[in-house]
Design a protein that fits this description.
Leucine-rich repeat, LRR (right-handed beta-alpha superhelix); mainly alpha; 2 domains; 4 strands; 4-stranded mixed β-sheet; 205 residues
Length: 205
């Protein structure tokens, strides 16, 4: 029973390794995935183990997954031109793979589409420093966004504090005016009361 189970797994594994990935077409050991509007996120992650020629040209690829070609020991030709290669940290695997290929190999002649300062450059001839200088890390964006939000928060707090100070000063001014008005009213009331009782006192004397 155990031997049968292992045999089924072996047969199933061979079938998977020989299966032609969607949406590509296969002819013998050639796998054609060209001109299918493939992006890097929709590129097949597994190709038949016996693939000798892989056509990926004229798509919308910007990077390749790390290790994509490493298990294809029979692979000797790959077409990668006509894609939108982004030459940042994501191109390091492709650059390393191209450098292992024979000089003058058709698969080696692919160019950067971005960033602008590297546009048109051959990927295999990029220096490591040029690639690293173009890397854009997500946590840098997060740090910049956090700083911007913190700056906005400080501005809002400063505006609220200024509003409170202005309100307190106006309230203090209104309080002083109200006290002064009250004192003036009391003073006028006392003066009027004195003026009313003063003639009566004079008459009695």
């Amino acid at each position: 029973m155990k031997g049968l189970h292992l045999l089924c797994l072996l047969i199933f594994g061979v079938q998977i390794s020989l299966a032609c990935p969607n949406p590509c077409s296969c002819h013998g050991s050639q796998v054609d995935c060209s001109s299918r509007f493939l992006t890097s996120s929709h590129l097949p992650s597994v190709f038949p183990a016996g693939t000798t020629k892989l056509l990926l040209h004229n798509n919308r690829l910007t990077t390749l997954p790390n290790g994509l070609f490493d298990k294809l020991s029979s692979l000797h030709e790959v077409s990668l031109h006509g894609n939108l290669w982004t030459c940042d940290c994501g191109v390091l695997y492709l650059r390393a793979w191209l450098r292992r290929r024979p000089r003058g190999s058709p698969s080696a002649h692919i160019n950067c589409s971005s960033p602008p300062r590297l546009r048109g450059r051959l990927v295999e001839y990029l220096t490591e420093q040029e690639v690293l200088d173009s890397c854009h890390y997500w946590y840098c964006d997060l740090a910049l966004t956090s700083q911007a939000l913190l700056f906005v928060f400080v501005l809002v707090q400063a505006a609220l504090l200024a509003g409170v100070i202005v309100f307190l000063r106006r309230f203090e001014k209104l309080s002083r005016e109200a006290r002064r008005t009250k004192e003036e009213s009391l003073t006028e009331g006392e003066a009027q009361r004195d003026s009313v009782f003063l003639p009566l006192t004079d008459r009695s004397s």
